[in-house]
Amino acid sequence: MPNMRKKSVQIIIALLISAIGLVIALRGVNLTEIGAALREVRWPWVVLGVGCMALSFWFRAYRWRMLLDGQLSVLEAFGLINIGYLISGILPLRAGDPARGVAAGMRTPVSVMAALSTVVIERTLDLLTVAIFLVLTLPFITVGDSVVAGLASGGAALTLLVVLVLMARFPEATESFARAILERLPLGDPERWLAPLRDILAGLQVLRSPRKGLGLLGFSAAIWGAVV
Questions:
Q1: What is the model's pTM?
Q2: CA-wise closest residue to 119 among 166, 66, 167, 64
Q3: If you ran DSSP here, which 8-state letter would residue 20 be given?
Q4: Share in percent of the chain as helix, strand, coil (round to 5)
C-alpha cells in the first residue's frame, strides 16, 4: 500500500510539472494561428514521421542495451533515453547524455563511469554513421563548407572510435600508460584516479567483440535510416 501511494504521488507530481511546462510553452502563442496551421497538416505524414522517430528510439534502446552487455532491459533503456532527450531539450550542451549515464548507474548494476563510457561510444557511432551517409550522398550534392565540416567530424569520430577499440583490446596497457602519467603528476595516489579508468574500460569491453561491433554498426545504420 505505501508503494502504491508513493507511485500515485509521483504520477501527480509528474502531471503537474507537465502542465506547468505546457502553460509556459504556450505563453504568448496565438492559438488561432496554431489551429489554422493544424488544419493544413497532412496527418498521415505526421503519423509516419512520429512512428519513424519512435522506431529510431527503440533501435537506440537495443543498441545501448548491447553496449551495457544486457545489464538493463530494452524498456528501461528506452525510458532512460527519452529522459535524456527531455533533459537535453531543456538544458544546454546536451546535458541529457551524462544525465542518462548517471541514471543508468543508479538503476542498474553497471557503474556510472562505465555507463558514461557507453554514451561516448554511442555519440561516436552516431557521428561516424552520419558521416558515412554524407559520403554516400556526395555525388548528388554541392560540396560546401558544411559538407567539409561534416566529413572532418566523421574523420574525428573514426579516429576516436579506433582509440576506444584499442583501449578495449589492451586494457592492461592502457592502465599502465595512465599510471605512468599519473605518477609524474602531483595528484596524490594514482589508484584514486585509476579506479574510474577501470570502470570506463569495463564499459568499453563490448568493443572487443567483432560480432558485437558489427551489431552496433547495424543498429546505428538502422537508427539513422529511420530518422532519414
A1: 0.83
A2: 64
A3: H
A4: 85, 0, 15
